[in-house]
Amino acid sequence: MIDVVALGELLIDFTQIRSNDALVKRFEQNPGGAPANVLAVLSKFGIKCAFIGKVGNDVFGEFLRKQLSDLSIDCRNLVSDPKHNTTLAFVTLDDKGDRSFSFYRNHGADTCLFEKEIDLELIKACRIFHFGTLSMTHEPSLSATIKAVEYAKACGKIISFDPNYRAPLWGDADSAITAMKSGLRYADIAKLSLEEAQMVTGKTRPEDCLKELLKYELSFAAITMGPQGCAYATDKYMGAFPEYPAAVVDTTGAGDNFWGTLIFGFLSNGANFDRISEERLSEIVLTANIAAAMSTEKKGAIPSIPDFAKVRAAFEEINGK
């Protein structure tokens, strides 16, 4: 049985690397795309995963397929498109390791996934279905995403949602907010950045955002806040953690590391937030918070996934104080 199936974008992150020439920017090719990043974390931690999406029939698409296959992620429903190229993103970093994105995605292969290309049996066989909003920016992938989510919901699967808002990929903020609200209506568990939570709820403080998010009947909601750590809530509990200390190099994929690690903890504890104790919930979120911070100490999203043993050791050190 496959534990987690994710649908969405799979692309190349060209991440800025150090150059000896201040006038020349150099970039390193890395696999990217939030849904795939989440699966990479889960697979590295021993969870069986499968990906649904589309890449170009080009050298970048071949690279991405091999990257996922090498991580033991099931790629039977990763479609190769002979007409459209793999989407590219150039990621530049400031002095603090924070990112700016430039996308090359007009008719990118990831936006060209059709409903008929989705293997519904793959969704039927999973426990958790995960998606975001970047597959909802254009047709036909918008219709494909909705079909997959509705099928997963009808099959009684746990729906996981991470908006992964990227302003340059939307015509306007209102369209993105509409898509985020749509995703939340399907979701059982969700992770949003503070910016996303504020956009959706109209609130400013994280605790107020969480209260509004729970009105979507979520079993669990988390807000990641970068240097301010994270906040989380169920209908019974609410909590927060400060940022775990890290020598930040690149924040790419930190939120995906957080969410992948949290889903791992969720699955490891019966996949039911309604029955989990406040103490155990706190442990799961703290572990995810640590993993996210550790991932910022290396470049790239998938290459920066920390070993779970290292994450667990840091958790034990904090717990022992």
Overall morphology: globular
Low-pLDDT stretches: none
Range of strand content: 15-25%
Strand arrangement, major sheet: 5-4-1-8-9-10-11-12-13
Helicity level:
25-40%
By secondary-structure content and strand pairing, the structural class works out as alpha/beta
Q: Care to count the β-strands?
A: 13
**What is the radius of gyration?**
18 Å
Mean pLDDT: 94
First-residue to last-residue Cα separation: 39 Å
Element pattern in H and E: EEEHEHEEEHEHEHEHHEEEHHH
Largest β-sheet summary: 9 strands, mixed
Total of helices = 10
Question: What would the keywords be for this entry?
Answer:
single chain; 321 residues; alpha/beta
Describe it for me?
There is one protein chain. By secondary structure, this protein is α/β, with parallel strands linked by helices. It is 37% helix and 22% strand. It contains 10 helices and 13 strands. The strands form 2 sheets. It has a 9-stranded mixed beta sheet with strand order 5-4-1-8-9-10-11-12-13, with helices on both faces. Strands 3-2-6-7 form a 4-stranded mixed beta sheet. Strand 12 (230-233) and strand 13 (238-241) form a beta hairpin. The chain is globular. The mean pLDDT is 94.
